[in-house]
Specification:
The chain is mainly β. It has no helices and 16 strands. About 0% of the residues lie in helices and about 55% in strands. A hairpin with a 5-residue loop joins β5 and β6. The radius of gyration is 18 Å and the shape is elongated. The N and C termini lie far apart (about 35 Å). The N terminus is likely disordered.
């Protein structure tokens, strides 16, 4: 099982997990989802455990390879699923990124496609029971980035994958599912060549993504 780093968000411990069961240190694990309070309106409930919904995404990728920085827009869609409530003092629930498919274009790289390798788990954390917002959410990512022309592979087609899953984070959500919520990369992410891990890698240095539930 992969390492699960701890992220600080809104004064609460926000765990980011990749596969398996999610639990806070010292807690007894997950239970029923329960309620986090409102979903933008007083008294509304977070979608029940197992609820899936589609989102549209508009992001800007900033990637560097061999000292050259590439910036381009990617657009597409994803699918999120609400999981179990996590036991503990702070209201927390699992949110899985089940799928993601984004496309963009760069003058040097050509057409770029970004896909989720497999479902990966993040979380949404409310400040306290009865006070659901502003909430924090880790939008889980474990990506493959394919391009027509890789400058680190002599201009040939290539695909690069994140070495480990990572979060895009929003600590000021006012509704869930999200509405025009901007998620940000917390740390640079290394993307290794899928066919030759010893080849030069890309580094994802920024990836702001605006996410909204589809109507």
């Amino acid at each position: 099982m992969r390492t699960r780093p701890i992220l600080a968000a809104s004064g609460s411990a926000l765990l980011f997990a990749c596969g398996g069961t999610v639990a806070h240190a010292g807690d007894g694990g997950g239970g029923g989802l329960g309620r986090l309070g409102g979903v933008g309106t007083v008294g509304a409930a977070l979608p029940a455990s197992g609820t899936a919904f589609s989102v549209v995404e508009d992001g800007d990728m900033v990637m560097e390879c061999d000292g050259v920085v590439h910036r381009f827009e990617v657009r597409g869609a994803g699918r999120l699923r609400v999981g179990n409530r996590i036991a503990g003092a702070t209201p927390t629930a699992v949110v899985s990124t089940d799928a993601e498919q984004l496309t963009g274009y760069d003058a040097d790289l050509g057409t770029v496609t970004v896909t989720e390798k497999a479902p990966v788990l993040g979380e949404i954390v409310a400040p306290a029971e009865g006070r659901p917002y502003p909430a924090a959410e880790s939008f889980a990512q474990d990506l493959t980035v394919a391009m027509e022309h890789s400058p680190c592979r002599g201009g040939r087609p290539a695909a690069y994958a994140s070495k480990t899953a990572f979060p895009l984070l929003n600590t000021d959500l006012t509704a869930f599912p999200p509405r025009n919520a901007v998620y940000l990369l917390t740390d640079p992410v290394e993307l290794v060549d899928v066919t030759d891990p010893s080849a030069p890698s890309f580094t994802l240095t920024a990836f702001p993504v605006t996410v909204s539930r589809t109507v």
